[in-house]
Specification:
heterodimer; A: Amidase signature (AS) enzymes; eleven-stranded mixed β-sheet; 11 strands; globular
């Protein structure tokens, strides 16, 4: 069959059916995505390494297996990319940063292994903000590959720190991608690129082989074109791993979401009052859509606890420890963003007692958040209070009238809860906006069900950028 | 809104952006949300920050551009202010840190 742009923007189920039925070979699909990666990857600042040889080998193997009747499942033969903080044997893993750009590991991260076992085809290591943003960057241009750009308007940022993962999925350069989130790094690019991004519960996905920024907060998760796609990928990458003591034995089994049950949703009322006008308008419109399949309580308030402070202190302290070698070597000066060149030093001066105090607060926070979530299937807020930032201006010089409001992202990350962001419209400069559903720990299935219901009655996820 | 308040709020937003876009220095946002009318606390934090910047200089001075020292010191002050805010939340002796270690 002829591969068109429409094919490359298909959902995972659609692509899987074409491959399973052998109407399309994995090799042909892989070659088509590779061609698109080569054409658009660099101009979007989305790619670090195209793994062409490996991809073609994996695709050929997939085709042979499928022909022999050994179909492995929905990801078999599907091309994907990973954020360049996941170790891949024999292929550079740069962590987005000049001091590490030639770094090569001799093993695959557990997540990469799992996707290989599922028959997926690795076609690219995707760009990211250097060191996953751990040192306090203030510009889109904070990666040795340059600024990540959203395919909707290349003058604007693709978000961070999973910049390339968001842009590559949005531009149809890969069928799906993997990102990571310490505090916002999946939700932000998903929102700025108009795609779906799922932050799993802490412990759901093994971190083994992923760059550590913050051991107690880092999570790996899918960035895809639909919520349903996120469920498919999460089911392949989740599970306990003896190499990661934080991973938990809670299998995530996922089938097609077909139920039409009525949900109970809570709107976090302080999450959008100071947001950009287009964000507010799109969010209000989205709530009207949600009311078609959910009972909505619009008066939810997050517990009054220092979520942002706890996350910030923990990230700074663990980040300074994780990159102490870099800080001590003086090679931090090679980082791209001016703030990143000095941003690691302050973390070395956080007192141990303050760091431990922050860790101690996480359990009471969890109890408070669990209490709040016991009344709802999910809480809802804008994914981000504004559309994306200009790629050529420091963040602190734009959007001067916007406020973040309730610390939804920080609260969810502080207590390890999952979230999913899906697109809900467009705002200034033809840039996408997103809506975020957050839930109690291990509630990914419910979040995917809700987001999928929303996507069944809207078509924002079916719109694609014209590159 | 006074110019100073506007600037603070601008810094707040940028730091929140930086933090939620994976981490960095949301810190000012937090610091600004702490009541700062207690001059003694402010003085103590400023003194502590000065002490800590001296430690950093002693340890890493050769790797730090002098122009960056005031910026580092201001982040340290923010961190101390955040720690102070965290400390105000009452914990019981039995509240353990959320760490991962299995023997």
């Amino acid at each position: 069959m002829q591969i068109t742009n429409e094919t490359l923007f298909s959902s995972l189920r659609e692509l899987a059916e074409l491959i399973r039925s052998q109407k399309l070979t994995s090799t042909a699909l892989t070659e088509a995505y590779l061609a698109r990666l080569e054409k658009f990857g660099e101009q979007l600042g989305a790619v670090v390494t195209i793994t062409k040889d490996l991809a073609l080998k994996q695709a050929q193997r997939a085709d042979e297996e499928i022909k022999a009747g050994k179909y492995k499942g929905l990801l078999h033969g599907i091309p994907y990319g990973v954020k360049d903080l996941l170790a891949t044997k024999g292929i550079p893993t740069s962590w987005g940063a000049t001091p590490y750009k030639d770094q090569v590991f001799d093993y695959d991260a557990t997540l990469v292994k799992k996707l290989t076992e599922a028959g997926a085809v690795l076609i690219a290591k995707l760009a990211m903000v250097e060191l996953a943003g751990g040192f306090g960057y203030n510009n889109a241009d904070a990666s040795f590959t340059g600024a990540g750009r959203t395919p909707w308007n290349k003058d604007f940022w693709s978000g961070g720190s999973s910049s390339g993962s968001g842009a590559a999925v949005s531009a149809g350069l890969v069928a799906f991608a993997i990102g990571s989130e310490t505090s916002g790094s999946i939700i932000c690019p998903a929102s700025f690129c108009g795609v779906a991004g799922l932050r799993p519960t802490y412990g759901r996905v093994s971190r083994y082989g992923a760059m550590a920024l913050c051991w107690t907060l880092d999570k790996l998760g899918p960035i895809c074109r639909t919520a349903d796609d996120c469920g498919i990928v999460l089911s392949a990458i989740s599970g306990i791993d003896p190499m990661d003591a934080s991973s938990i034995d809670k299998p995530f089994i996922y089938n097609n979401v077909e139920n039409n049950k009525r949900f109970k949703l809570g709107i976090i009322k302080d999450s959008y009052k100071d947001a950009q006008a287009s964000v507010k308008e799109n969010f209000t419109n989205a709530i009207a859509e949600l009311r078609k399949f959910a009972d909505v309580d619009a008066s939810v308030v997050l517990p009054d606890m220092p979520f942002s402070e706890v996350v910030s202190l923990i990230v700074e302290a663990e980040g300074a420890s994780a990159f102490r070698d870099l800080i001590e070597s003086g090679r931090g000066k090679e980082l791209r963003d001016p703030n990143d060149r000095w941003g690691g030093f302050s973390g070395t001066a956080i007192l141990a007692v303050d760091y431990i105090q922050a860790l101690r607060l996480r359990e009471p926070m969890k109890r408070a958040m669990d209490g709040l979530y016991s009344k709802y299937d999910a809480l809802v807020s804008p994914s981000f209070p504004c559309v994306s930032y200009p790629a050529d201006k420091p963040f602190d010089q734009v959007y001067k009238d916007i406020g973040f409001g309730a610390p939804v992202i920080e609260a969810g990350n502080a207590v390890g809860q999952p979230a999913i962001s899906v697109p809900n419209g467009f705002g200034e400069n033809n840039l996408p906006t997103g809506i975020q559903f957050t839930g109690k720990a291990w509630s990914e299935l419910t979040l995917i069900e809700i987001a999928s219901q929303y996507q069944k009655i809207t078509d924002w996820h079916k719109k694609h950028p014209n590159l | 809104m006074s110019k100073e308040t506007a600037n603070k709020s601008r810094r707040n937003f940028t730091k929140r952006l930086a933090l939620v876009a994976s981490a960095p220095i949301l810190t000012t946002y937090c610091a600004n949300s702490i009541p700062t009318d207690n001059q003694n606390v402010e003085k103590t934090l400023a003194k502590s920050a000065k002490g800590l910047i001296d430690v950093i200089q002693a340890s890493y001075g050769q790797n730090i551009n002098k122009d960056d020292l005031p910026k580092i010191q201001s982040v340290i002050e923010r961190n101390l202010t955040m720690a102070e805010k965290i400390r105000q939340f009452k914990l019981k002796n039995s509240d353990e840190p959320a760490t991962i270690f299995y023997a």
